Amino acid sequence: MSTAAVDIFEVSKSYNDRVVVDALSFTVSPGECFGLLGPNGAGKSTLARLILGVASPDAGKICVLGEPVPARARLARRGIGVVPQFDNLDLQLTVRENLLVFGRYFAMSATEVKAVTPSLLEFARLENKADARVAELSGGMKRRLTLARALINDPQLLVLDEPTTGLDPHGRHLIWERLRSLLGRGKTILLTTHFMEEAERLCDRLCVLEHGRKIAEGRPHALIEQQIGCQVIEIYGGNPHELLPLVKPQVQRAEVSGETLFCYVTDPEQVRLRLANRTDLRLLQRPPNLEDVFLRLTGREMKD
Amino acid sequence: MWQRFAPALPANPWNWIAVWRRNFLVWRKVALASILGNLAEPMSSLFGLGFGLGMIIGGVEGTSYISFLAAGMVATSAMVSATFETIYAAYARMQTNCTWEAVLCTPLTLGDIVLGEVAWAASKALLAGTAITIVAVALGYAEWSSIPYALPAIALTGVTFASLAMVVSALAPSHDYFIFYQSLILTPMMYLSGTIFPMSQLPGPFQRIAAFLPLTHSVDLIRPAMLGRPVDSVGLHVGALCIYAAFPFLVSAALLRQRLMR
């Protein structure tokens, strides 16, 4: 029996001859935040469904919280909290009633749910909304309620499928802060996202997916160091295809994406000097980030 | 084999109650409107047809036409309410509102959800059927003593038609398809099953078909009970309804597993 919170071994899943997850393996250790990073259609949500036992793999082994999935998924789910990609709260019910209804699915009595409700509402910053109907809540509030609902059974493992998609920056930061506090409490988080910033901020380790295959795995900063390992200059304003041969001798690597030229450089001054007389251009120099890694691995242009 | 279908079956005998209570909590907020909406149609049929046709027809099978019709309306309203709850409300919870999807992430199985939904739809059928029975009794079209015998038959009718409708929900690509079930199955069944006129009026072959219809068995249980007469072949009618409840339940659970847990 595995000590990992989630153990995925050689798992494959196809829908109508389309391979969605392709011989994928990874493990998530207890207490860590593990990110599945990939564009839409990379197989992230399918993986979340496989881990929950809501879908069955065509091949491979899945073990979650020590239980084989899907065979004993029901038992594994007792210790899992889920934030789905799209809110599926009961809109006609109040915030408090949503928690009550969900607690019952985990065989909790009304008294047990009542006992944990105040701390969950406080966690979700919804203390003043306890008796408001969910339909009246903002998008950010709904998302936080979904997160609070996922904690009703005091789960060891949280599976979060794109938890901040569709939120404004304020709402997103609040969710990130709440997730970090959960990690501080020793929870294990499996997070799927296509937000690089989210993955970089929250995840201890990540697995980059494309077409259901793992194309990289590691700690975010290690990945950035390995894959990029130098400064980035973004150049806007001119025709990037004309600029490319101009700067090529000074850069390690350069790529065009839309109207921007991305230059990966160890000595940024060289590029600046080279373009000194081009007042029409705007240069933005920055440290490399996960987005550069992702785009390097999957190709500059978003394919979906 | 067992492992493949275990998620489609109830995990234990009580998990479904959480699903039932969720639906009850939501329903409670609109209870009055829901009851009025559910009763308006069968009541207007009962009085409209009962008084109107009753005057022309006079007596049927040794009772007034409106008393004869009352039992038919009780069975029909149980059928319609269980069906509509399943094909519209439960379907919306499955397809549009993703309520089931949320429940599937908890220790409940798909089987628990389906059982909870069937039990809920049957409860609404029981409510509708009972309300009409009480009105019929209060107006003297049925016996007070009939209520304890009629209620279990109404509840069983509810379970049966909820189960059958669950198969339709499991197969329907969208709610536009439900009209076929209503117009091609339920409405003809209502005319064939002796709800509005005695089955003996049907041509022979139709009588033989009607004998197999679940609504016929419901009416054969409910009508004698309401009119204070002995019920013939109770075991046959209850057994037939149980088969019509259990088999579609298993089929719908297997179909829904295909649909939702791919």
Give a verbal description of the structure:
The complex is a heterodimer of chains A (304) and B (262). Chain A has 11 helices and 14 strands. With 304 residues, chain A is of the alpha/beta class. Chain A has a domain at 230-287: Alpha-Beta Plaits (2-Layer Sandwich). Chain A has a 6-stranded mixed sheet, sandwiched between helices. In chain A, α8 (220-227) packs across α11 (290-298). The mean pLDDT of chain A is 91. Chain B has one domain (9-260). In chain B, α6 crosses α11 (234-260) and α7 runs parallel beside α11. The mean pLDDT of chain B is 93. Classes of the chains: A alpha/beta (304), B mainly alpha (262). Chains A and B meet through α2 and α3 of A and α2 and α5 of B.
In summary, what is this structure?
In chain A, 35% of the residues lie in helices and 28% in strands. Chain A is α/β, with parallel strands linked by helices and 304 residues long. In chain B, α2 crosses α6, α3 packs antiparallel against α4 (65-95) and α6 crosses α7 (147-171).
Number of helices of chain B: 11
The CA-CA distance between the termini of chain A, in Å, is 39 Å
Shape of chain B: globular
Q: Specify the biggest β-sheet of chain B.
A: 2 strands, antiparallel
Number of helices of chain A: 11
| Low-confidence blocks of residues of chain B | none
- Rg of chain B, rounded, reads 19 Å
Strand coverage percent of chain A = 25-35%
Number of strands of chain B: 2
Secondary-structure element order of chain B, N to C: HHHEEHHHHHHHH
CATH class of the domain at 230-287 in chain A: Alpha Beta
Characterize the quaternary organization of these chains. heterodimer
- Low-pLDDT segments of chain A: none
Sheet with the most strands: spatial strand order of chain B: 1-2
Nearest-integer average pLDDT of chain B: 93
